[in-house]
Give the backbone structure.
Amino acid sequence: MDIPRIFTITESAHRIHNPFTPDKYATLGAALRMEKGTRILDLGSGSGEMLCTWARDHGITGTGVDLSPLFTEQAKLRAVELGVADKVKFIHADAAGYVSAEKVGVAACIGATWIGGGVAGTIELLARSLRPGGIILIGEPYWRQLPPTEEVAKGCEGCAIADFLILPELIASFGRLGYDVVEMVLADQHGWDRYEAAKWLTMRRWLDTNPGDEMAKEVRDKLTADPALYAAYTREYLGWGVFALMKR
Ligand code: SAH
């Protein structure tokens, strides 16, 4: 059970697999005013940076579920490195349908809402693990500016205009699902650079050490095309943020 190999090649050196930087996760962790001992469930926990740093900085406990064995292993190592291995647990599994045995105070899905079949389905899934009065965290892209054509949307990693909303519409959509948006922290273009540009050096180094790999041509083509494509499209058109929601 694993995610497509292209992600573990391009993001093997990432600690955060989205356009958030460490300071954004720190800002969000503080903004949520969590009590020590708050239990967190994180579906699509990646390399575990959110849970590990929040366990260190806010004394939370948490469980992360992720489909990538590599990222899950990296998350466990990070927990040891930060001295929080007794506070956070990382499970290698498909998070689709995952409901925690004990209710949590914060239920998160940060940049992986396909797990619940989209934003609405993921909120429903997370709500099943949430204690009354708890907070749901959704990390999701939005259009910074609406692409004028489908061609432009496609330049953003093959997206379609209909894949995302503009920010006010995304926020309004949470209201229509019956949730208050009680906090939000937005990524910026510098954060996008950290997420996307960090892949380029990883790809280049991987190509230099794996020239005969069956994926070498795909990775080479990607490294050749991505930097200019990214600067023209994703960097200009795509926003990304984490939204904190409470049931009305
Ligand atoms: N939340 C993390 C990772 C976001 S990237 C962070 O902030 O860094 C999306 C993550 O979803 C990847 O780690 C990928 O392995 C994971 N993923 C993809 N499909 C999944 C599934 N069905 N179940 C659990 N995790 C999944």
Remarks:
- Residues 184 and 243 are 4 Å apart (CA to CA).
- The chain has a mean pLDDT of 98.
- The longest strand covers residues 130-143.
- The chain has one domain: 5-247.
